Amino acid sequence: MILNQWYLACLPEELKIQNPLKRKIVGRDIVIFQNKKGEIGIIEDRCCHRNVNLSLGYIKDDCLKCAYHGWEYNINGECVHIPSFPEGEEIPKTARVEKYYAIIKHKAIWVWIGDEKMKNSTPIPPMVEMDEYPRVYNYHYLDADLQLVAESLIDAYHINHVHRDSIGTFMGNLHGEKVDFHLDVQDTYLTGEYNRHNEGTFWEKFYFGRDKEITTKIGFWFPGTSKLDINFRKRRMVIYEHFYQVDENKVCMLQITCWKKILTQFPMNFFAKSMMLKKSNTIVEEDLVFLENNKSTKTKTGKRDLLIKSDEVTFEFTKLWNRNLNNHRDDS
After folding, report:
1. For the structural domain made of 5-118, what CATH number should be given?
2. Within the chain, which residues score under 50 in pLDDT?
3. Is 0.90 surpassed by the pTM of this model?
4. What's the CA gap between 72 and 58, in Å, rounded?
5. Phi first, then psi: what are they for 73, rounded to 5°?
6. Residues 5, 330: contact at Cβ < 8 Å?
7. N or C, fewer C-beta in 10 Å, the chain?
8. Fold for domain 128-328?
9. How many alpha carbons fall within 13 Å on the CB side of residue 322?
């Protein structure tokens, strides 16, 4: 479990669908809610009275109300009202649950898990496209190795094979030759850029442009965010994946797809969102097969990966990952 990090707890639009919202992030059971004032609270998902999940409750004015005996908690995790308590008597200070520090950035709700005094030591990834582009999102839970999940989106060579039917020629092709990734590797993140050959269909080239090459940018921010940025002449598609360990076995992957000037002619952009969500789900599910298979096969055989010279991104990513891992792992 990697602590002292910002994790993307949820998107604001999720709270419009389900409020409160249950999550388990790096082994912590939390509940996210928005009160009637619009304030966001992230607290331990446990009523301190009879130890039931507060996520089973509901919002009442400024508080999250436990559905079992009606105890009410504010955004700081303090119980401020007990229906059965004698009138005028002070509620014990021990009637509280753990509060987690929350912040809204890039139109997402982030939670700091770890020592709150360190919350300014690690920046939130610069997911600036989420501030202005339309987006769709989907969650996937898988039994896979967190490190491989983190690298998956920036692995250029798998696209032609794993996604040969779903993506096809849309993102261009590599043809297996040596790729110059133009990597910039820093202490806690890496970014890069490379070109793919534009071999789209007639209609793909008509809509996205006939440039011979498609500029593709990648990024990874330790430990939980990767980026794939596909730049056409006038249009752009940006895919973010945010991931974290749920428990000892499960990893959560949140994929967010943003775009610029794609299918904007449709009213309310409804068709674009529907199409993007369907395509995104298909692509991620193709990845999940191999991510889970990798962990299962390595567990059975005990064999390590065999890397080759062209795995430049993997080498740099692995060095960055290992360099940061020991500083943030929870060994308790």
Report:
1. 2.102.10.10
2. 331-332
3. yes
4. 10
5. -120, 140
6. no
7. C
8. Naphthalene 1,2-dioxygenase Alpha Subunit; Chain A, domain 1 (3.90.380)
9. 5
